[in-house]
Amino acid sequence: MKFTHVLTQALGLLSLGGAVEGFSRSRNDACGPLKPYRSLPTSKSRDKTCHVRSHGNGTDDSSYILSALNQCNHGGKVVFDADKEYIIGTALNLTFLQNIDLEILGKILFTNDTDYWQANAFKQGFQNATTFFQLGGEDVNMYGGGTLDGNGQVWYDLYAEDDLILRPVLIGVIGLKGGTIGPLKLRYSPQYYHFVANSSDVLFDGIDISGYSKSDNEAKNTDGWDTYRSTNIVIQNSVINNGDDCVSFKPNSTEILVQNLHCNGSHGISVGSLGQYEGEVDIVENVYVYNISMFNASDMARIKVWPGGPSALEPDLQGGGGSGSVKNVTYDTAFIDNVEWAIEITQCYGQDNITLCNENPSNLTISDIYIKNFRGTTSTTEDPFVGTIVCSSPDTCSNINVSNINVTSPIGTNEFVCDNVDETLLKVNCTATSQ
Ligand SMILES: *[C@@H]1O[C@H](CO)[C@@H](O)[C@H](O)[C@H]1NC(C)=O
Ligand SMILES: *[C@@H]1O[C@H](CO)[C@@H](O)[C@H](O)[C@H]1NC(C)=O
Ligand SMILES: *[C@@H]1O[C@H](CO)[C@@H](O)[C@H](O)[C@H]1NC(C)=O
Ligand SMILES: *[C@@H]1O[C@H](CO)[C@@H](O)[C@H](O)[C@H]1NC(C)=O
Ligand SMILES: *[C@@H]1O[C@H](CO)[C@@H](O)[C@H](O)[C@H]1NC(C)=O
Ligand SMILES: *[C@@H]1O[C@H](CO)[C@@H](O)[C@H](O)[C@H]1NC(C)=O
Ligand SMILES: *[C@@H]1O[C@H](CO)[C@@H](O)[C@H](O)[C@H]1NC(C)=O
Ligand SMILES: *[C@@H]1O[C@H](CO)[C@@H](O)[C@H](O)[C@H]1NC(C)=O
Ligand SMILES: *[C@@H]1O[C@H](CO)[C@@H](O)[C@H](O)[C@H]1NC(C)=O
Ligand SMILES: *[C@@H]1O[C@H](CO)[C@@H](O)[C@H](O)[C@H]1NC(C)=O
Ligand SMILES: *[C@@H]1O[C@H](CO)[C@@H](O)[C@H](O)[C@H]1NC(C)=O
Ligand SMILES: *[C@@H]1O[C@H](CO)[C@@H](O)[C@H](O)[C@H]1NC(C)=O
Predict the structure, then answer these.
(1) Burial group, residue 352, by CB count within 10 angstroms (0-12, 13-18, 19+)
(2) Structure pTM?
(3) Which protein residue's CA is at the shortest distance from atom 3 of ligand 3?
(4) Half-sphere exposure of 425 toward its Cβ, with a 13 Å CA cutoff?
(5) 164 in ligand 5 pocket by Cβ < 6 Å?
(6) Where in the sequence is the active site (predicted)?
(7) How far is CA 317 from the centre of its chain?
(8) 3-class DSSP state for residue 32?
């Protein structure tokens, strides 16, 4: 009797010392096969648990969510139960979080009130991006394998009528220092799936993305991840079924590791677009992209930079003239199938007239690029070409290396378009220039 009592006490102490069941694995151990640029901070242990209530009748559950987050902030775990659907109809500013886990077992659905969200979603000040909520603070983990559903169909249909509407991003990771996101299922985002800004030391692991439009209006700009003003980010072990960039490194993304992704239907893994805004300095430096399978896409490796002069791609997408640099970017090991370009590097983004592009060379340089170990087959779209590497002047690109590219088009060719680039470093068949 006495013995049992002592044992129970000992176990009680043990469980205080350890974490509440859930996220305890070190973020560094979870990273693989390649390790992050800098080691990721380990989570503090969690010692309390809060379950989120839900109305269960379609009304907004935001106040329940906020009260659970406040109650379990600073060392607790908030559980979204497996058998519940939670409705979010209020823009939640979750940048106050500290040492907290969000275990999402059930489903979270954002309301379809497009008027409310256009007025209240968080404006992030980059490419008019807004987010349903913003997750920030320090040492925050969101996992559990449950679902976040952006109710995108109303947005896809509204955007077809008016392409200036502001469609929220499903997950805003804004100003987060230290965190793990995933495993999670993400469905039907109105726009990008993740916008990661002002953040550092964040691991995305085991994200499953899907959500196609059920009407004739395509789900557009559904990038998997856009990183912005962020450093030491890892994105890995994820499956992305979408219709725009699988991952995109926007201005001031540094020390980013992306590995083990299955991307389907995307625009590839993209640096940029950069140099869109005159007077701004955009930096993308130290990026490693490893072991990607890319299916049914426009690109695998892509670097898109606007030229020096003003250019227009679409009514809501124009720019050019910005300065900065893309430096030390590696794409290592990729399998492609039905992809238009295995490699697409351009400093003429938004400007089809190459003469005009070369008259106003980009103010944003591209250097120390390593692209290697690609295999597979392109689509028929660009036959006989499988890649294109076009700089706007010989002075704006340097040390671009391409090697071991075993990629052919369906008709068996492997030609590249090459312009204003040192062809001795390109171990590919440069058979054409873009003029
Ligand atoms: C939903 O449930 C809450 C109580 O949990 C109740 O106050 C509210 O009136 C209900 N709303 C609807 C639309 O049924
Ligand atoms: C979000 O909350 C933070 C405090 O955590 C505050 O500083 C910031 O102004 C809030 N942002 C918005 C848009 O409400
Ligand atoms: C929006 O969602 C509600 C249920 O919450 C549904 O009754 C309504 O039909 C939806 N509206 C549209 C346009 O899909
Ligand atoms: C990031 O931080 C900068 C500087 O504090 C701030 O101006 C900006 O609004 C923040 N958010 C984003 C998305 O850049
Ligand atoms: C932001 O949206 C406004 C209208 O909603 C538009 O005039 C402006 O060009 C957009 N800015 C960007 C950078 O797309
Ligand atoms: C790509 O997505 C389509 C649905 O749009 C699906 O039919 C196909 O199986 C997927 N392919 C891969 C390789 O994931
Ligand atoms: C990016 O970094 C550069 C260099 O530090 C800085 O000049 C620029 O303002 C930053 N841009 C953004 C969008 O934060
Ligand atoms: C370039 O990136 C590699 C990893 O891809 C890193 O090891 C190296 O330190 C970086 N170089 C510089 C100069 O930062
Ligand atoms: C491209 O720009 C040049 C220089 O401005 C111009 O002479 C030429 O007509 C343009 N070509 C086309 C196809 O518009
Ligand atoms: C951009 O480049 C042009 C030359 O192509 C140069 O005249 C101009 O000063 C540059 N602007 C900036 C802001 O660097
Ligand atoms: C290139 O890939 C094909 C299959 O896609 C394979 O048969 C061939 O051996 C590979 N060549 C080299 C040099 O790796
Ligand atoms: C270039 O194409 C020729 C056939 O046209 C082929 O024999 C050669 O291997 C190719 N070179 C590279 C680097 O792919």
Answers:
(1) exposed
(2) 0.93
(3) 112
(4) 15
(5) yes
(6) 267
(7) 19
(8) coil
Query: Prior bond to 183 cis, omega within 30?
Result: yes
The answer to whether 393 and 361 are in contact (CB under 8 A) is yes
The DSSP annotation for 313-325 comes to EETTEEE---EEE
Contacts of 333 (CB under 8 A, 6+ apart): 290, 291, 292, 372, 373, 374
> How many CA atoms are closer than 13 Å to the CA of 183, on its beta-carbon side?
12
Residue minimizing CA distance to atom 6 of ligand 10: 363
- Burial code (b: 16+ CB inside 10 Å, e: under 16) for 128-155 equals ebbbbbbbbbbbbbbbbebbbbbbbbbb
With beta carbons less than 8 A apart as the criterion, state whether 282 and 249 touch.
no
* Residue with tokens 């953040």, as numbered in its chain: 199
- Degrees (nearest 5) of the Cα angle 116, 129, 110? 40
Quote the pLDDT of residue 24. 56
Phi, psi of 91 (to 5 degrees): -70, 120
**What digits encode the pLDDT tens for the residues 280-298?**
999 999 999 999 999 999 9
Flag whether pLDDT at 124 surpasses 60: yes
Give the span between the Cα atoms of 309 and 300, in whole angstroms.
27
For 171-322, strand residue ranges (E) read: 171-181, 184-187, 194-197, 200-205, 207-210, 225-228, 230-241, 247-249, 253-264, 269-274, 281-305, 311-314, 317-319
Do 98 and 137 contact (CB within 8 A), yes or no? yes
Output the residue whose Cα is nearest ligand 8's atom 5. 288
Q: Residues 311, 319: contact at Cβ < 8 Å?
A: yes
Residue range 333-339: mean pLDDT, rounded: 98
Strands (E), 267-349: 269-274, 281-305, 311-314, 317-319, 323-346
Domain with residues 6-37+113-432, CATH architecture: 3 Solenoid (2.160)
- Whether ligand 3 lies within 6 angstroms of the CB of 158 is answered as no
DSSP H or E run through 365: strand 363-378
In the annotation, is 267 catalytic? Answer: yes
